[in-house]
Amino acid sequence: MTAFAPKPFPWAEAMRFGFGVLRLAPREFWAMTPRELAHAIVAVRGVAAAPLDRATLDALLRRFPDRVDASGERA
């Protein structure tokens, strides 16, 4: 057994986007390739940003610390 197991294709999310957001008819949705659907998603939502790594998050927290008032509550 390998350490990497591919994730199954997210059909439920794809169908919600295709039918709900793009308002595709079933025939149109099922005629699309996954790559075509991916491009349609990017066209509507834009390119997804990669999540922050820990070092970048720590740098942002140092640069923009939460303000705490006298009672200890965040402002």
TrEMBL record:
It comes from the Bacteria. Pfam families: Phage_TAC_6. NCBIfam families: phage_TIGR02216. This is Putative phage protein (TIGR02216 family). It comes from Rhodopseudomonas rhenobacensis.
